[in-house]
């Protein structure tokens, strides 16, 4: 299960209120995209959900459990970053297996889960290579593989494709959508790219200076943007 609820979540750095107070419900299995201009608080919101930042006030509930004060590892989430964060000296297989090794899983379990992740991500032929011998898209798939083996309740992606060229971004968009179809796991995907938001999301959350301007399906936002900010950002005709 991967239902995530934010209640009046506020984040203030020093005297700067970055997230003034957000209420949001993410249903189990949903593909939710946080979209908005650079600096609007997308990464901060994702890091609050992941537990990489502490909320200033408000609560975060995952599957009925208040995790507001829980350590990141206790939240059952897996985060995928734009900068891959792979270990250069390890092979693809070792990189993907790493979280399971840390959790002291049995070798047979590790092998089975790593091989399954490799199959889903089309990495089977690259397992003994090191990250330096891979393309950008392959590296991003390894980073996703490392998240998959943990079998998280939800995947959190922070602009995972922004280091890739336009053609590869298109391919990876489809691959991540396909992965969501296969796994059925909740995914929260942060981007400043309207095309990614419109093509990948079940539900889009439009952020502006830490506030939610509108939540809706891509079609709802396109047809009935609540204001000019949403209309301008989504590129709809209003
Ligand atoms: P986005 O991911 O949408 O580009 P961020 O969440 O990274 O935006 O940042 C939102 C705002 O919060 C920015 O103004 C940024 O400067 C500020 N911010 C982010 N992290 C910190 C921090 N650790 N200390 C102070 N300000 C921060
Ligand atoms: Mg960001």
Automatic annotation (TrEMBL):
Its main location: membrane. Signal peptide: none annotated. It is a peripheral membrane protein. Residues 4-234 form the ABC transporter domain. Keywords: ATP-binding, Nucleotide-binding, Transport. One of its GO terms (cellular component) is ATP-binding cassette (ABC) transporter complex, substrate-binding subunit-containing. It is found in: Cell inner membrane. The keyword ATP-binding applies. It comes from the Bacteria. GO terms for molecular function: ABC-type maltose transporter activity; ATP binding; ATP hydrolysis activity. Belongs to the ABC transporter superfamily. This is Sugar ABC transporter ATP-binding protein. It comes from Zhengella mangrovi. The chain holds residues 1 to 238 of 332 of the full protein.
